[in-house]
Design brief:
67% helix; mainly alpha; 106 residues
Amino acid sequence: MLEPFIEQKSRQLIYYLSRFLRGRLPYRELHLFVWDTLEEWSHFRVRSWRPETLREQVFWHLLYQIEYWSEPELKQNLKVRRELRYCLRFLHGYGQIPSYCVGVRP
C-alpha cells in the first residue's frame, strides 16, 4: 500500500519540482504539494522511519530539501539546484542515487 503512494507522489514530485526549477511553477504551489503529501502520508500507520527503497529515500530527501531551503536559495543557489536535479534524475530512473541523499520517513 505504501509503494503505490510513493510511486504516485514521486511522479508528481518530478512534475512539480522540475517545473519550479525551470521557473514555470510558483514556490507556493511546490510548498502546498509538499504539505498535501505530508497530510496524506499521515493517514498511513507507518512504524518505521526507514524508507523501503532507494526511490523512497530520494523522495523523502527531496521533500525535506524543498522545505529546508528558502525560496531564494531554491531559485538562486546553483549547488542546491544541481543537487535537486541529480535527485530528480534518479527518480526518473537515470543514474545512481546521489551519495548525499539521506531521506527518512517523517
